[in-house]
């Protein structure tokens, strides 16, 4: 999210959460994977939900930039009911996981952290379902660990274009930090309404607005803003776009055609903004580039089809997973 104006002060009736989202309850028990990375001790929060009737498969859900593992709530429920063990981590820098003051964020590092977590849990061949920035991470994971990735499902992934090459001006980490410190519930809501939900708004979306806004209101808000700035810089400077053709894992793209997400778009000149975030075209081009990829489009949905139309999305998702079951790469 990008807010404007002076730093926000919470009203008495608005939630405030700790830097690791203390005070916000996840839909399933949260566990922590402790490990050492870049000369510091960190911990990665995750939910590990058992299947109702096991089918022997594990689905790993990778959240987006302005999301948390908790926002996969309905997807976890549907997958567990269909027989999947479901693991939904919060990446380092996000939500209930560590917020290091100094960390070299990279998709390679986050993929390694996730792989180490899964190895620790005894998971060897998961289905990766990545949404938004989680889609970029899922691509990187599949490129690094192709023999240990059963299937890739990319839900409105960002990174299907190179924003820098298209003319989005670079922002320094300090500039991102200044913008993130000004984030408010109103700025989050306005951005999500336009981008995530295609101009639509329902009361059930507000829970996720307040989840994020509570982080920016709480006592750890500066650590949250700083990590967010570092993560935005990572997303902007580390494109996976040029490596889509190297993916060897069975891949499905699920795209909401009214999505128009593009990192740094608001900072770009008007003529550049018009060229960014055209998801119907981006999705179709990516499906042609990724070997044997399948594309599924939702004509009336935005960036978050799993939240905006959970019934339609999960019907499609379960069909995709059923089609790939038992197939060899």
TrEMBL record:
Superkingdom classification of source = Bacteria
Give one GO biological process term.
acylglycerol catabolic process
The GO terms describing molecular function are: monoacylglycerol lipase activity
**Pfam families (alphabetical):** Abhydrolase_1 (PF00561)
**What keywords does the record list, in alphabetical order?**
Hydrolase
User: Where does the record place the AB hydrolase-1 domain?
Assistant: 60-310
> InterPro entries annotated for this entry?
AB_hydrolase_1, AB_hydrolase_fold, AB_hydrolase_sf, Epox_hydrolase-like
GO cellular component terms given for this protein: membrane
According to UniProt, the name of this protein is Alpha/beta hydrolase
């Amino acid at each position: 999210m990008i807010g404007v104006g002076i730093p926000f002060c919470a009203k008495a009736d608005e939630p405030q959460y700790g830097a690791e989202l203390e005070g916000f309850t996840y839909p399933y028990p949260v566990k922590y994977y402790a490990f050492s990375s870049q000369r510091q001790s960190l911990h990665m929060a995750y939910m590990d939900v058992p299947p109702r009737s096991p089918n022997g498969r594990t689905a790993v859900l990778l959240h987006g930039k302005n999301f948390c593992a908790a926002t996969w709530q309905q997807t976890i429920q549907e997958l567990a009911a269909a027989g999947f063990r479901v693991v939904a981590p919060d990446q380092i820098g996000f939500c209930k996981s560590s917020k290091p003051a100094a960390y070299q964020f990279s998709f390679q590092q986050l993929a390694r952290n996730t792989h180490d977590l899964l190895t620790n849990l005894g998971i060897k061949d998961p289905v990766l379902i990545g949404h938004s920035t989680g889609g970029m991470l899922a691509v990187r994971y599949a490129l690094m660990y192709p023999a240990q990735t059963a299937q890739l499902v990319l839900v409105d992934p960002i990174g299907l274009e190179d924003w820098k090459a298209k003319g989005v001006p670079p922002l320094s980490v300090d500039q991102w930090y200044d913008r993130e410190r000004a984030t408010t519930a109103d700025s989050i809501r306005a951005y999500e309404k336009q981008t995530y939900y295609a101009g639509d708004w329902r009361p059930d979306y507000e829970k996720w607005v307040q989840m994020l806004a509570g982080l920016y209101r709480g006592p750890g808000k500066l650590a949250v803003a700083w990590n967010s700035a570092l993560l935005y810089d990572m997303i902007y400077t580390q494109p996976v776009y040029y490596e889509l053709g190297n993916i060897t894992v069975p891949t499905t793209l699920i795209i909401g055609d009214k999505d128009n997400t593009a990192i740094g778009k608001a900072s770009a000149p008007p003529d550049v903004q018009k060229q960014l975030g055209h998801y119907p075209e981006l999705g179709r081009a990516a499906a042609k580039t990724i070997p044997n990829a399948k594309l599924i489009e939702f004509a009336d949905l935005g960036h978050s089809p799993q939240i905006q139309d959970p019934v339609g999305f999960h019907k499609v998702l379960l069909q995709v997973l059923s089609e790939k079951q038992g197939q060899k790469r």
